[in-house]
Amino acid sequence: MEESKQEIRLPRLGEPAPDFEAPTTHGTIRLDDYKGSWLVLFSHPADFTPVCTTEFMAFAEIYEELQKRGVELLGISVDSITSHIAWVRNVEEKAGVKIPFPIIADLNKEVAGRFGMVHPGQSKTETVRCVFVIDPNQIVRAMIYYPLTTGRNMAEVLRLIDALQTIDQHGVATPANWKPGDMVIVPPPNTQEMAKERLKQRYECVDWYFCKKKL
User: Fold this and answer.
1) C-alpha to C-alpha distance for 182 and 187, rounded to whole angstroms
2) Could you list the residue range(s) of the whole structural domain that residue 77 is in?
3) Looking at the 3D structure of the chain, how many domains does it have?
């Protein structure tokens, strides 16, 4: 039981991402290699499986959009380098989709263990579908988990990146279903005087604590 608890310990939002050094399809990669840029680290259960294949093709399709946002992409599973290479070649040959980003080969589950990617309730041998968004300071900013049976939504991955980068740039928050171009939420006031003054600003306010604005 204790071993299982340690295996699924999850990183926490706002804390440094677990450090790692691992073999990938692009050579040995360290977390530090991504310092100064955003990183989306995502896990998949296994190579040569249907849902994972659709996801890798979908991640490849948004790779250019991620690059425009200064975001790197890194995949991981507990398969071997040989398996990864064969699968990537198969996807390119059969589907005509080139996988441009590296994939970690984590046979000993060292990286998966640090990121809490193996959930025994789903599988004791495979990683579930995790997405970790890590900022340029290597802080974990977002985590999303999907079961083995459910493929991820790439539009949501891009929306999440856009929201986090907007929040950092403008010091605001984003409402439910926000997308670029929508109004953002102004942080709530900290004093009674600020609450009074903010109603004089050119915000769209529901009340003193809930105001939105255009960027």
Assistant:
1) 16
2) 2-150
3) 2
Q: What is the pLDDT of residues 164-174, one digit of tens each?
A: 999 999 999 99
- Residue 65: helix, strand or coil by DSSP? helix
| Helices and strands per DSSP (H, E), number in the chain | 6, 10
CA distances from residue 85 to 60, 80, 96, 215 in whole angstroms, order as listed: 15, 9, 15, 44
Count other C-beta atoms under 10 Å from residue 89's C-beta: 12
119 and 180 fall within a common domain: no
Q: Looking at the structure, do residues 136 and 58 belong to the same domain, yes or no?
A: yes
User: Alpha-carbon distance 150 to 157, whole Å?
Assistant: 15
Phi first, then psi, for residue 42 (nearest 5°) are -130, 145
pTM: 0.90
Catalytically annotated residue among 52, 130, 205, 211: 52
103 SS3 class? strand
Question: Helix (H, G, I), strand (E, B), or coil: what is residue 76?
Answer: strand
Three-state SS at 117: coil
pLDDT (tens digit, 9 = 90+) per residue, 198-207?
Answer: 777 788 888 8
Same domain, residue pair 40 and 143: yes
Is the pLDDT assigned to residue 189 strictly greater than 60? yes
H-helix segments, the chain = 2-7, 50-68, 81-95, 110-114, 154-170, 192-198
Q: How many residues comprise the chain?
A: 215
The residues with which 196 forms a beta bridge, in sequence order, are none
Q: What confidence score (pLDDT) does residue 64 get?
A: 97
Q: Is residue 155 part of a domain?
A: no
Active site residue 52: yes
